[in-house]
Amino acid sequence: MTAPAIVADGVRKRYGDIQAVDGVSLRIEAGEFYGILGPNGAGKTTTLEIMEGVREPDEGRIELFGQSPWPRNLDLLTRIGVQFQASSFLDKMTTRETIRLFASFYRVGARQADAMLERVGLTEFAQVPADKLSGGQAQRLSIACGLVHDPEIVFLDEPTAGLDPQARRNLWDLLRDVNEEGRTVVLTTHYLDEAEVLCDRVSVMERGKVLRTGAPAALVRELDNMVRVSVESGLLTPDAMRDSLKDVGVVDATVEDDGVLLTVTTVAPGPVLSVLADRGALRGLEVRGATLEDVFLQLTGREYRS
């Protein structure tokens, strides 16, 4: 059996009265695209920083390739690449100068640095001051700086936070390519759709604890094929919808109206659609299968908030 790239066993970290990480245990295989997801404050970033060797755990064990990253392990530095949640580039340094500077930390030449700049689509911005790049361009530069020395493990902390939808999807393509080259990628995100698209497996975190781990599709399948049926709000009141569903024997559905959509969540969408058709309430009809958001709701009993 191939040795795992990363092992975490009973990791804990506290800041004053806040238990940021509470007994996290993970095993991440070599070449895996692994997501750590949850809302802000779930403990994702602290968990990642402990893996990177940036922070010391209060308890527990972390190993990368069988070695502890703490205290700062020089043998691991060239084998891991890091993109932090927020990156600040030096004033007045151009994009090319910035990536060449990062490359020099690992004794990587200018030619390889420039090739990485081209790979992330920033060659035409090479002479632009790094602090003048757009949000998506800055994130690409940050990732390029973490990849320039060809690491085996790449840590990405919310790399698409604050980006517009097009910039997010452009970054997804880059991250897929990085993983397909055989690198282990560990991603934290509060975008559940991002985890579903990119990750082989995910761990759902809340209040410092890992609630569930598995492939996104497998976690969703555990929800007994839950389906959401939505129509425009105002066609039926929630109470009228519940009464109509009871009349046809549907008693396990939930009905919510947020003022925009009336949504019925059920494992039996057929009778729901029949009721809506009979009542002439099909305007804006949308039928969606379960998602990781539904997994989170089932695990925590509350809606996901990023």
From TrEMBL:
It is found in: Cell membrane. Gene3D superfamilies: P-loop containing nucleotide triphosphate hydrolases (3.40.50.300). Keywords: Antibiotic resistance, ATP-binding, Nucleotide-binding, Transport. Coiled coil: none annotated. It comes from the Bacteria. The keyword ATP-binding applies. One of its GO terms (molecular function) is ATP binding. Residues 6-232 form the ABC transporter domain. It is a peripheral membrane protein. It comes from Streptomyces fuscus. This is ABC transporter ATP-binding protein. Its main location: membrane. InterPro entries: AAA+_ATPase, ABC_transporter-like_ATP-bd, ABC_transporter-like_CS, ABC_transporter_ATP-binding, P-loop_NTPase. Belongs to the ABC transporter superfamily. The keyword Lipid metabolism does not apply.
